[in-house]
Amino acid sequence: MSFIASSLGITLSTATGIVDNLVKKELVVRGADSEDRRLVICALSSQGQEIINRMWELGQLQMEKLLDGLSLEELGKSHEIAEILLHNVRSKVNPV
Fold it and tell me: Whole domain around residue 22: which residue ranges?
């Protein structure tokens, strides 16, 4: 649970509350590590995975709409900007 909290930049109690709610909604399953019972293993349930897959599909459709009609040069510039934004997000979430 501490990995989730630190990855999201939230407190352990907040992460636990979020996971508790996702478990109640049957979107996440929780278990213990067989070698270290102090570790909590969280994974998407099949229902949670279906929702994530659908969100991914919708995101891709939106991206296709945004990029439709751009020239190759504009697509290249868009790619460069997307790389810069991705780097920026990663540096904020996991500062080096």
Answer: 2-44
What mean pLDDT, rounded, does the chain reach? 92
Residues 59 and 86 in one domain: yes
Quote the strand ranges of the chain, DSSP E.
Answer: 28-32, 40-44
Q: Find all residues with CB under 8 Å of 15, minimum gap 6, and list them.
A: 1, 2, 4, 5, 8
Residue pair 15/1 in contact by the 8 Å Cβ criterion:
yes
Helix residue ranges per DSSP H, the chain? 2-8, 12-24, 46-67, 72-93
Taking only Cα atoms into account, the Rg of the chain, rounded to an integer number of angstroms, comes to 18
pLDDT tens per residue, range 64-93: 999 999 999 999 999 999 999 999 988 876
For residues 96 and 76, give the distance between their C-alpha atoms in angstroms, rounded to a whole number: 28
